[in-house]
TrEMBL record:
UniProt-recorded name of the protein: Uncharacterized protein
Biological source species: Oribacterium parvum ACB1
Gene3D superfamilies in alphabetical order: P-loop containing nucleotide triphosphate hydrolases
Start and end residues of each RapZ C-terminal domain: 177-296
Matching NCBIfam families: PRK05416.1
Keywords, ordered alphabetically: ATP-binding, GTP-binding, Nucleotide-binding
C-alpha cells in the first residue's frame, strides 16, 4: 500500500476535488465503489473518457460541496491513452486523488476462475493474456496514483476498514504494510513470506516444566528467551537490517512485506522475537505493521 505526499489545499480548493478509483480487473473496484457510496460519495462507474471534460465542467459549476468518485478501468481501453491529457487540463482547477486497486496476478486469475467471468481484454483468450495487456495500459495510472491498495489478501470487511480510515477518519495512508508472522517449522512455512528468520538458536522454554504451557506473549517466557543476551543482539541487528531495507522496498514500489520469525513449534521463541520486533517498529514512519502468531495455540 502506498501514498505519495499530498499538497496542502485551501478550503476553496477542497470543494473542487474528485476521487478517481481505478485498478486491475478483479482487484475489487466495484466493491470499493459501493463502499465509498455507503460513505456518502457520489459514485459514477465506467464514465467514458470522452465525456470527462463535460462532467468536470458540471463539477465546477456545481456550488455544492460534495464527494465525487469516478470509476475508470480497462473497459475504457480505447480512450485511456487520452486520459492523462484530460486530467492535466483540469489539474489547476480540480484536485484529483487517484486510488489504484491491485492484486497479484495469480490472485486475479483465481478470482476470474471462481466467478467464471472472462477478462475484459481477453474475452476470447486466456485470462493471463488480458492481465498482461491491462497492466501495460494502466501503468501510467498506477504511477500517478496517490494511493495503491493491494487486495490480494484483503477480505471485503478489511477493504472497507482501510477505506474508512483513509476517507472518513482521514488517517495518513502508509507506504508499506508490513506483516510479522511467528510460526513453527513443524507446521510448515507460510507461502507468502518475503523474509524468513530462524530463531531456534535461542534458549528454548519448551523444555522447562514451568514454562512449557506458557507463550512468548508472556514476560516470564520472554525473560527466559533473553537470558543469555543473544536475543537482544539479534533483535538489534534485525531492526538495523529493516531500517536499511524498508526505504529501498518503498522506493521500488513494494507495498506489502511479510516477515516470518520461526522456531520449532511457533509458541515460545518465535513469538517472543515477533512481539519485540513489533514493538520496536510499529511506530516507524510510512509503514503500517500487523502481528500474527500463526501457531501459538497449536
Amino acid at each position: 500500500m502506498e501514498e505519495k505526499e499530498r499538497p496542502v489545499r485551501t478550503e476553496k480548493e477542497a470543494k473542487r476535488s474528485c476521487l478517481i478509483l481505478t485498478g486491475m480487473s478483479g482487484a475489487g473496484k466495484t466493491v470499493a465503489l459501493k463502499i465509498l457510496e455507503d460513505f456518502g460519495f457520489n459514485c459514477i462507474d465506467n464514465l467514458p473518457v470522452a465525456l470527462l471534460d463535460k462532467f468536470l465542467e458540471l463539477v465546477m459549476e456545481n456550488g455544492r460541496e460534495e464527494q465525487i468518485a469516478l470509476g475508470i478501468d480497462s473497459r475504457n481501453i480505447q480512450d485511456l491513452d487520452g486520459l492523462e491529457e484530460h486530467l492535466s487540463r483540469w489539474e489547476e482547477k480540480i484536485s484529483f486523488q487517484i486510488v489504484f486497486l491491485d492484486a497479484k496476478d495469480e490472485v486475479l486469475i483465481q478470482r476470474f476462475k471462481e466467478t467464471r467471468r472472462s477478462h475484459p481484454l481477453s474475452k476470447e483468450g486466456r485470462v493471463e493474456t488480458g492481465i498482461i495487456s491491462e497492466r501495460k495500459k494502466l501503468a501510467f495510472l498506477r504511477k500517478k496514483a496517490d494511493i495503491i491498495i493491494d487486495t490480494s489478501k484483503l477480505l471485503t470487511k478489511e477493504l472497507r476498514s482501510q477505506l474508512f480510515s483513509i476517507f472518513l477518519k482521514k488517517k495518513k495512508y502508509k507506504n508499506l504494510q508490513l506483516s510479522i508472522v511467528s510460526f513453527g517449522f513443524k507446521y510448515g512455512i507460510p507461502e507468502d513470506l518475503d523474509l524468513l528468520f530462524d530463531v531456534r538458536f535461542l534458549p528454548n522454554p519448551y523444555y522447562e516444566k514451568d514454562l512449557k504451557s506458557h507463550t512468548g506473549t508472556e514476560e516470564i517466557v520472554q525473560r527466559f528467551v533473553y537470558q543469555d543476551g543473544n536475543a537482544e543482539i539479534f533483535l538489534h541487528k534485525l531492526k538495523a537490517l529493516l531500517d536499511f531495507l524498508i526505504p529501498l522496498y518503498i522506493s521500488e514500489g513494494k507495498n506489502q512485506l511479510v516477515i516470518g520469525i520461526a522456531c520449532t513449534g511457533g509458541k515460545h521463541r518465535s513469538v517472543t522475537i515477533a512481539e519485540k520486533l513489533y514493538q520496536s517498529i510499529k511506530d516507524m514512519e510510512n509503514i503500517g505493521v500487523r502481528l500474527d502468531h500463526r501457531d501459538i495455540n497449536k
